[in-house]
Amino acid sequence: MLLLQFISRKVMNRWIGKVALVTGASAGIGASVTEELAKAGVKVFAAARRVEKVEELKKNVGKVNGEIKSGMQRIGKKK
Fold first, then answer.
1. Residue 5, Cβ neighbours under 10 Å: how many?
2. Rounded distance, CA 19 to CA 15, Å?
3. CA angle, corner 61, sides to 10 and 57, nearest 5?
4. Burial class of residue 37, CB neighbours in 10 A (0-12, 13-18, 19+)
5. For labeling, which of 37, 56, 66, 79 is most exposed (least CB within 10 Å)?
6. What percent of the chain has pLDDT over 90?
7. Contact in structure between 9 and 34 (CB atoms under 8 Å)
8. C-beta of residue 68 within 8 angstroms of C-beta of residue 19
9. What strands, in cross-sheet order, belong to the sheet with 67-71?
10. Cβ–Cβ under 8 Å, residues 24 and 33
């Protein structure tokens, strides 16, 4: 496990300061990816239909090396 963490850190170091777009960031895998990327120092734009959930995620993550910005996405037909 320790070796895996070391390898992960080395791989993630190349992304510090870069920007990532994560869709579906309000829950599940999207929320987890958003959190981990921000902790690793990546600037994350978290797109989701439920922006309030992303805002909640930002508060729960707290102070991290990266940054989380949120926005709403709408794909498909308008209802």
1. 9
2. 8
3. 120
4. buried
5. 79
6. 10
7. no
8. no
9. 19-23, 43-47, 67-71
10. no
Mean pLDDT value of segment 20-24 = 91
pLDDT band at 76 (very low <50, low <70, confident <90, very high): low
3-state secondary structure of 70: strand
pLDDT of 5 strictly over 80: no
What SS3 state is found at 21? strand
Q: Which residue has the tokens 């995620």?
A: 57
DSSP annotation of 66: S
* Mean pLDDT within 31-50: 88
pTM, whole model, 2 decimals?
A: 0.73
